[in-house]
Structures are given as structure tokens and as C-alpha cells.
Amino acid sequence: MKFKHLLLLSALVGFLTAASVVPAAETARPLVVGMELAYPPFEMTDPNGKPSGISVDLATDLAKSLGRPVIIQNTAFDGLISALKTGKVDLVISSMTATAEREKSIDFSDPYLSTGLCLLLKKDSAAQSIADLDKAGVKVAVKKGTTGHLYASSRLKNAEILVLDKESAAVLEVTQGKADAFIYDQMSTYQNWQRNKDTTRALLEPFQKESWAVGLRKGNDELRNKVNLFIKAYREKGGFEQLGDRHLKEMKGEFKRLGYSFFL
């Protein structure tokens, strides 16, 4: 009888032990990454409505390096910092420029991309620089919450600033001649110019250089250190180069032809 009890106990212990062994990815807390899925090819949705793009691939690879599954939380760009501070997301990867103003409320990782602010101009604009736009009667479009918005608000004293919620709306203002210019990043300015060559021209030399970084809650040094280690290792093994080839191969070649350094 005792022998039978021992066998039963051994089987029970074995069952409980086996039941507790599950893959780490299933038990690890998901890494919730905030981004606005409205900025292709960095943040967007595929034909099936699933998150896709450079930032999605980057977030997925980062989460994998941490041994955690990833959840992409689609959030309006001007709501991302609030979502981060209130704990709705663990970090932000959304083509966000690390600025001194933003660093007052959140922390940033080391930079992972270099870019800058450029100008999409209406075709007949005579402007040759950002200074040429700071005049009475000139209308400059910006996307709400971006560094272009911040720059225009603080630096353009005479031009009229049109603050719009979407990139597409700002581009439309320029293509229809309702705005003289749209301040946005180098890559997007190039793409918008290519799509609207009949009605626009572009000044692609950045008048303000910027770096994109991962946004994190203040004081979350443990996660920030892990993110920085990931960025360093990812760059060394060619991860960013592969992202550029996967999503931006044609643009990489064109930037090289035009004499501009590529940003990834």
C-alpha cells in the first residue's frame, strides 16, 4: 500500500512540475509599444489591418531580445507622451524626435535614426530657405505635436501657421496652393514631393537636424539600459541596414544619387 502511495505521489509531483513548465514568451508580460499607425513606411497597417512598417519590425525585434511578446498600441501622435506617463504603454517607438522639451516629461534611449526638418513648397514658391517663409502673408502648414509644429511656433514670428492633425491634410494645403509650405522630416518631404511633382517642389537639405529615439517613462533606467544595449547590438549586426533595405531600398539609392546621407 505504501508503495502505491509513493507511486501516486511521484506521478502527481511529475504532473505538477510538467504543467508549470511553459515557454517564457507565454508567461512574460507583453511589451506594450505606443505608435501612431499613420506614418508609412515607419508606422502603418498592412492590407489586413495589422500593424506593419519599420517601427513595428524594430519593436518586434526589441521585444524578442527582451524575451517578451509585443503589443502595438495605436495612439494619436500628440497623445503618445500622455499614454507613456500614465502607464498605458511601456515605451514609444513612433518616429519621435528626442527634444529638450520632451525630455522634461519623459526619458529617451540613445538615438537610432538621424534626420531633419525640411520644406515641401508649392511649385511657384520663390523661397530658398526657411527664413524666406517668415513673412506676412505667407502660410506654413505643420502637423500638430511634431517638431515642425514646435519650430514654427517658436521661430516663425510673421508667417501664419496652419496647425493640422494629419500629414495628408498639410500636404493637400500645399498641393492646392492654400499653404506656401509644409515643415516635416526629410524622408516624408521627399516622398510627398515625388507624389506631387506637378504642384510642389522640395528643399531637402535639413535646416534643423534631429535624432529619433525610443521614449520611456522617467526613472525607468533598467528598461532604458536594456533598450540602449539592444540598439547598439542591433546596429553592429546590421539590423538597421536590413530595415532600410527591406522598406526603403529605392529611397536609399535616390538619396545617394542626390548626395544626401541616408538616415538609418
Tell me what the structure shows.
The protein contains nine helices and twelve strands. It has 264 residues and is α/β, with parallel strands linked by helices. The strands form three sheets. The chain has a five-stranded mixed beta sheet. A hairpin with a 5-residue loop joins strand 2 (44-45) and strand 3. The chain is globular. The relative contact order is 0.15.
Attribute tags:
disordered N terminus; 9 helices; 40% helix; 22% strand; 5-stranded mixed sheet; 264 residues; alpha/beta; 12 strands; globular
Number of helices: 9
Tally of DSSP β-strands: 12
Rg calc = 24 Å
Main sheet summary: 5 strands, mixed
Broad shape = globular
Encode the helix/strand succession as letters.
HHEEEHEHEEEEHEHEHEEHH
* Beta-strand percentage range: 15-25%
Order of strands, main sheet, comes to 4-1-5-12-6
- End-to-end distance: 71 Å
The helix content is 25-40%
Mean pLDDT: 90
